[in-house]
Design goal:
This protein has helices at 2-32, 69-77, 102-109, 128-135, 146-152, 154-162, 192-203, 212-218, 250-253, 270-278, 295-304, 316-324, 354-357; strands at residues 46-51, 54-60, 85-88, 113-116, 139-142, 166-173, 178-180, 207-211, 235-239, 260-265, 282-286, 288-289, 292-293, 309-314, 330-335, 345-346, 362-370, 373-380. A nine-stranded mixed sheet has the order 11-10-9-8-14-6-15-18-17, with helices on both faces. It has a five-stranded mixed sheet with strand order 2-1-3-4-5, with helices on both faces. By secondary structure, the protein is of the alpha/beta class. Helix 3 (102-109) runs parallel beside helix 4 (128-135).
């Protein structure tokens, strides 16, 4: 009986310890998300230092990718870091890059235990950071909130493993699966709460992409228009095989304030490219296929330029092309309350929306109401 009581007490303490680990890792994940869309090509990492149950240091990857989260947290903790536990959402780096190894800073600070959410697949790290910490006598536990960390670092993981950004397709559709009125005329489908969520998503991505059809029809700005967040606007990208983008467009006029990249074919006319370049636009030439620009090559080009999280906003042809090519990793499907009618523009052109909503390639990750609209997030299986 005594042994049974001792076992129960031990199990209770173990559960309490795991619950505390999850609590502090959740805080680290929340801090790390502050850097989404601002740290490319580095991952947006969060770190929390805890001593005697009290948070003594917090940090997250800074704009541009450095300083990293761990030295930020260590600097705030100071001497209190000695003997403390560090919670970090990604394995600390162990190699010398543009900043010293985080593993060395952790060892020098006297951290006693490191709780790491997930191993970094970067070949320059890939378990070596954890190994270095253990070799220094630090207790290392890996795996707390690993699934959430994998989602937060999906852009980094995708770039390392597949040589392309993590692609998020955003669709705002009516109940009858339309994204525009007859003739491609723009129409407000969702309300203010949904639009605010879209602008927040823009701020959390490194780049936002549209096709030339949408650029010509809507003349969008594609910036983040949430209060005080204009500086969080992503790189704007237009797929424009024949360089038809007008120099009078809002995109081109704002190219010196917010980066604008136009992806075009190798055969696009040089004078048109030079004219855009003179306005501050960066013209990127990629391979073509019989259907248009080669999306896989476009994504490789973006990855080479450090883009880790790409938001695709349309239109229908671009969205369908990404879906058909198997290059969509997440879908943010916003549904408004009002039907548009049979003559409206179908969400994916000739491709039915069921290619996402009823496909075995996607599963629902989350769903929520945004006033009169509904947001459903699908992720690739």
């Amino acid at each position: 009986m005594i042994f049974r009581l001792l076992e129960d007490q031990y199990a209770d303490k173990a559960r309490e310890a795991k619950a505390l680990d999850r609590r502090f890792m959740q805080l680290a994940l929340t801090l790390g998300r502050r850097g989404l869309g601002r740290t490319a090509p580095n991952p947006a990492v969060g770190a929390v230092i805890v001593k005697d149950g009290i948070v003594v240091g917090r940090g997250w990857t800074q704009p541009g990718g450095r300083p990293h989260a761990e030295p930020e947290a260590l600097a705030r903790a100071g001497e209190a870091a000695r003997g403390a536990t560090l919670y970090v959402t990604l394995e600390p780096c162990s190699h010398i890059g543009k900043s010293p190894p985080c593993a060395d800073a952790i060892i020098a600070a006297g951290i006693a235990r490191v709780v790491s959410a997930i191993e970094d697949p970067n070949p320059q790290v890939a378990g070596q950071g954890h190994a270095k910490l253990r070799a220094a006598g630090i207790v290392v536990d890996v795996g707390t909130c690993a699934d959430e960390a994998a989602r937060d670092h999906a852009g980094h993981f995708r770039r390392v493993r597949e040589g392309r950004p993590h692609v998020i397709l955003k669709l705002a559709v009516s109940p009858d699966d339309k994204i525009g009125a007859a003739g491609g005329k723009p129409v407000a489908i969702t309300g203010e709460a949904a639009r605010a969520r879209v602008h927040l998503l823009r701020a959390q991505c490194d780049a936002v992409m549209i096709g030339i059809g949408t650029a010509l029809a809507d003349d969008p700005l594609l910036t983040c228009r949430l209060p005080s967040m204009a500086k969080r606007s992503p790189v704007r990208i237009v797929l424009d095989r024949a360089l038809r983008l007008s120099g009078d467009s809002k995109l081109v006029h704002s190219a010196r304030e917010v980066p604008l990249w136009v992806m075009t074919s190798d055969t696009a006319e040089a004078p048109a490219a030079a004219k855009l370049g003179a306005a501050g636009v960066q013209v990127l030439r990629v391979k073509t296929s019989e259907y248009g620009l080669d999306l896989a090559d476009a994504l490789r080009t973006l990855s080479d330029k450090g883009i880790t999280r790409l938001m695709v906003e349309g239109g229908a042809q671009v969205a369908a092309s990404f879906v058909e090519a198997g290059l969509v990793d997440e879908v943010w499907l916003l549904r408004g309350p009002n039907e548009i009618g049979a003559d409206g523009v179908a969400a994916l052109g000739a491709l039915p929306l069921s290619a996402i909503t009823q496909s075995s390639s996607f599963r629902v990750r989350a769903s929520e109401k945004l006033d009169h609209d509904t947001l459903t997030i699908y992720e690739r299986v």
